[in-house]
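Batch manifest, entry 17 of 40.
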Amino acid sequence: MAATVLGILAAALLAVGESGGIDLSLFSERRLIQGYLDAWYGGDFEAATGLRQPDRLRTGPSEERSRGEVEYQALLGAQVEVLACEELPPKTIRCEVSYSNRLTETLGAEPAVVAQQFGLQDGRIAFVAGPYLHDERLTASFGRFATELFPAEYEEGCTEEPNYQPPGCARFKLAHLDEWVAWHRMGPTRPQLP
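Output type: structure tokens
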């Protein structure tokens, strides 16, 4: 994945014109979106923000929170793929994006598919709108597991998910991954706590 991101970023840098934007005739919107998602979910905050419109960076969460989210995704080995896109004129593209991470992989589940909209301005990402990229079903399952068995630890590390997932939450999930998979597979037959 790192080689893909580097290739996309190299192509983007070659396509940057005097205005500082990316010439989309050389660098397609879909490749731009895939490059941005690969960087963000692959743990490269600088590369991801380099593909954003600079004046739009302040409209989202703080830099510290954004860096934490990028680290969370990298720790969990997040994988994203832009599937199908459609233009919503004048400068918005709606894409179906698949998302998976170590929970998906360990469970042997199919990636989740989420629709997101990407605003483009001067060949860069101006905004990302839509549901947060995660597997809603697996996130909820892990939350029920952790609330039953490790309520204090889960509350401390993952209180704001799925809207914000700090690195500590990823570490907590990785530490209890095998236990969660066994619990999840037991399904409705699992014993209930008093």
